[in-house]
Amino acid sequence: MTPRDLTLWISVLAIAILGGMVYTTNPRRTVNQHYVTTTAFILGWMLCLAYGFQAETGKQGAFWIRQASAVGSCIALAFNMLRLSLIHPQDGYWRIIGRMRWWCIGHIAIIYLCQTTFFMRGATLPSTPNAVAEPIYGPGFTIYALYMLGSHAIIWSLYLRDMKRSRGMRRAELQYILLACFSFLLIGGLAAIFIPWITGTSQSVQFSFLNAILLEGVIAYGIATRRILSMAVLFRMITAYTLLLIYLTVLYLGIFAVSALLTENILIAHLLAALVTAFSMAPAHTLLQRVARRLFIHHQAIDTQYTVQEATEVLQSITTIPRLLMSFTDIIRKAVGTNRAFVLLRDRMEFFPVNAGAHEPVLSSADALVEAVQVENMLIRDQLERSTVLSSAQTQQVIERLDELELELVFGIRIRNELAGILCLGPRVSGRFYSRTEQEALGLLCTQLAVSMENAQLYTLAQNSRIYNEILLDRLLSGVIAVDPDGNITVFNREAEQVLSQSSQEALHNPYLLLPEALSRQIEQTMKTGEVTRDVELWLPRNGHVQGVPIRLSCTPVASHDGTMRGALLVFHDLTAIKRLEFQVQHNDRLASIGRLSAGMAHEIKNPLVTLKTFTQLLPDCYQDEDFRNTFTKLVGSEVERIDSTVRQLLQFARPPAPTLRQLHLHTILADAVHMIRFQAENESISIEAKLEAEYDLIRADNDQCKQAILNLLLNAIEAMKARGSITVLTDTCGSNDLPLPAAKPDQPRWIRLMVTDSGCGIAPDVINTIFDPFYTTKASGTGLGLSVVHGIIKEHDGQLDVSSTPGVGTTFYVYLPLLEEETP
């Protein structure tokens, strides 16, 4: 087997493999199916050539030449099949064959012509080694040649017509097949017709099979590659590399010739030529690329560098999403040369156009186009038929949807792997398709757009949050002042302006020392100590107010995640209305107390007076009765004493004596009080247990009044149990936050708490709020002033009194008294 035959058989194998690969890329596409038919015709033609080259007799050579001519004529038929399958992609394989019925009849006639002696009389086998059989053509060969030239000319004209009518990828596919047809006919015609006619020998035909490899490769690239180059780009590349090859060859030969003359050493000459050629390759390549670009100046591709630069300037600007997308689509529209470009943004389950006034569509998440973008991020109308990712049904639905919306390219915009929007581009005005370079540029821009959209969302969110917070601060009924680490005011809301009679323009970005002294002192303390202050009541001086404005404030430090002090936040409430209400409530309480006091007084004094009146009325008649006089004398004395006791307790409640305050230990007072009532408790079978657990008990109090209050609580506990039970007296220390009410002295940090707990009958929930009212009692012989007196005494000592009770279980009274920090002489 000669090298020529080996090359031929290797070419046959390569073309067969290439045909199978193209078919498997998309077997359901008609053009791929007809490509296999074209491959079959070419393989048949090459096999006939192979057997003809190996013919040992003239008769064998003539037979295979006839068959090669017959099969070779069908290649033009295959070119037409490819054209029709591109123009009518919806037609099936046999439908395309039906459209070519007249072409098929003509080729059948040519095939029959090739089998006659009218076409070829025979062949001779030259004696030259490796020579092929020389055909002896008859008059019919002229008919064959004219038919081949005419059929190819008609096919070319049809291709040119369809190229003018087509756009985008379909036009590029037709261009590639036309290029392949031209190269096949040119090389085949030269090898099989023109050169034999000039030289008078057909030996050049043995190289004609080389054009089949070029033919198959160009067609395969044109119909099987998803991102093909446009013809202008292809020609520019071919021209650039051809010029580069010529330049390097001439340079190499020139350097070699000069070096050989100077050094007379062939090896050194080759080395110098190789080095000079290698170092000049890069600049020569750049220069020749520019030359090729000027030769094809009509090719207007997207200027990727300028477009990316212009888009980057827009995408880096912080703005709202609608403005961002409108500017972005304007740039893309101008760059790619299309009249239709818009972006659909996702809102829950639908995609809406950015410009509400535009006539762009609204797509649901279930739309075929959206589902396809979820699977394959970029969809190009002309490339969908080549895709195998989507099923044939999905592909057809997406193509119909793109045609309905007049779209050529759809690109998904993803934020954190979620489809946030869709970039939609219509066909280009020039009719060209979106090349691979342009697709990559658009993909890069969409990636940058996604980042910019996320930034715009964060910017919009921040703006909305700022406006929302400003509205909240202005509408808030509390004054809010924030201070930064440098002590400058950063927040000063409307309520703060009204309460402090200062405008925000005067306060903002100025030191907090401009605030009233009470507020600035509180902020300074918080920033120094980092402690939180809650519910501090004070009066702020203000013009037009004698006492000032009452407020309750809280101040808290503001720290970063690492604990660094970032400032302070002061919140305060105007208590003017609350103080007025408190005054009114207190006034009403006083009136109610006077009413209850009057009723109690009337009840307590009326009973003795009735008794005195009765005996006074009987005295004239019974004066002589000694027993009556003795009884009357004792009764009058006891009833007058009863009235005197009631009046005395009432005076003590109404005007308690001013306490004589001095430093005392509460545990000592408790011990005396418990000792005084222990005998009475034992008579009632009641145990008393004292748990004086407070580590510190120094208070400022009146010894007699404090002991009276404790005795009243202990006696009430004994009376509540009637007989049998237990009383527990417990002390401990607590802070101001544990008080039942805000402390009258906010700067008092430590308190002692006294708890008197009994196991009596308890207090009903509906009356527990009235037990401190004067003359309220549940005892048959009680006056109802005991707990009222206790409440008054504790209040005079700046303390607080509270109670908790569960009916049937028992009652606990809580007494809170401020502790002294240290004992003073």
Sum up the overall morphology in one term: rod-shaped
**Biggest sheet details:** 6 strands, antiparallel
Mean pLDDT over the full residue set: 78
Count of strand segments: 20
CA radius of gyration: 55 Å
Uncertain regions spanning at least 5 consecutive residues? 296-300
In angstroms, what separates the terminal alpha carbons?
Answer: 130 Å
Count of DSSP-assigned helices: 23
Widest β-sheet, arrangement of strands:
5-4-3-8-7-6
The share of residues in helices is: 55-70%
Structural class by secondary-structure content: alpha+beta
Report on the structure:
There is one protein chain. The protein is an alpha+beta fold and 825 residues long. The chain is built from 23 helices and 20 strands. A six-stranded antiparallel beta sheet has the order 5-4-3-8-7-6, sandwiched between helices. The chain has a five-stranded antiparallel beta sheet with strand order 10-9-13-12-11. The chain has a five-stranded mixed beta sheet with strand order 15-17-18-20-19, covered by helices on one side. A hairpin with a 5-residue loop joins β9 (479-483) and β10 (489-492). α1 (3-25) runs antiparallel to α2 and α21 runs parallel beside α22. The longest helix has 47 residues, at 576-622. Mean pLDDT is 78; it is low at 296-300.
